[in-house]
Amino acid sequence: MELAASLSKPRDAYYRRLLATATSFALFGLGGLCLRLLVFPLLACLPGDALAHRRRARRVVSRLFWLFVQFMQRTGVLTYSISGAEKLGRPGQMVIANHPSLIDVVFLIGLIRDANCVVKQSLFRNPFTRGPVRETQYISNDGSMDMLDAAAAALQGGQCLIIFPEGTRTVPGQAPAFHRGAAAIALRGAKIITPVTLRLNPTTLTKAEPWYSIPARRMHFSLQVGDDIDPQAFASQGLAPRASRLLNDHLHQHFIKELATDERSTAQP
Question: Where is the Phospholipid/glycerol acyltransferase domain (predicted)?
Answer without folding.
Answer: 93-201
